[in-house]
Amino acid sequence: MLIMVLFVVFITTLGYVFQKALGYGVGFTGFILVIAGISSLISYYYSDQLVLMTSGAQPVSEKENPEIYHIVENLSIGDGLPKPKIYMIHDPSPNAFATGRDPQHAVVCVTSGLVSLMNKSELEGVIAHELSHVKNLDTRLMAIVAILVGFVAILANMFMNTLWWGGFRGRDRDNQNGNIQAIFLLIGIIFAILSPIVATLIQLAVSRKREYLADASGALLTRYPEGLASALEKIAKSPYSVRTATNATAHLFIANPFKGKDTKVWFASLFDTHPPIEDRIKILRSM
């Protein structure tokens, strides 16, 4: 709720600055908020289906893969959760993610590479991690944050395109009002450049924190931290990237789906979707 309130304030501020810079009336900000609300509601209810569609995931039945089906079923019972739907991406890269707005509409998705590479205790560690995302409502949180971050980027892009194509009303003939509009125009350009970056940094920081929490919660569920630690080691050693992963879905996976993108440099690491996998393994093995 706090993140949503802060983002609404953030978007309202952007709308007001862009409105003043472009010389539009107060209705422009109201229009922006209405569009943001509608897009958020649509994405809130259908984001899981969009993610599964873009990932090329297919549903898995008990007959097709009884091992994964029973692991998910048993861990769900142990965690007091409804059994989520199970999907698989046919990809050699070992990885997994969870999505869905609440435990009643949750989906756990694994890659075929994960199933073929991991032993049972490692699979249990990965599935427990993903179920923890569901129980902690991380799937809902990250869907909401992703929607809001995307809308900030769209709003900034609209503002810059309007300036580029000359769609603003120019400076007011009154010197004082004209100077005020010029100031807002400068502030608007700065906001349009920086706001998507700031919003993305917030999204990635939230994502990294929730990964640590899901590691701890998953280890608590299985009572065997080594299972997840060993799974993360194998995932880190895999040379394959998830072919269907995108920048919009990368933060959902248990580990960065793009190989070679993690960095130790402090500033660049702010843009990482996941905390360093070595740190996660070290923490798990210290439990």
Q: Descriptors for this entry?
A:
single chain; 10 helices; 2 domains
N-C termini distance: 31 Å
Q: Can you tell me the CATH superfamily of the largest domain?
A: Metalloproteases ("zincins"), catalytic domain
Largest sheet: 4 strands, mixed
**Mean of residue pLDDT?**
84
* Helix content bin: 55-70%
**Could you give the count of β-strands?**
4
Derived structural class:
mainly alpha
Strand order of the largest sheet: 1-2-4-3
Beta strand %: 5-15%
CATH architecture annotation of the largest domain: 2-Layer Sandwich
Q: Give the CATH class of the largest domain.
A: Alpha Beta
How many domains make up the coordinates? 2
At the fold tier of CATH, the topology name of the largest domain is Zincin-like
Secondary-structure element order, as H and E? Answer: HHEHEEEHHHHHHH
Low-confidence parts: none
Any idea what the radius of gyration is? Answer: 22 Å
Question: Overall 3D geometry?
Answer: elongated
| Number of helices in the DSSP assignment | 10
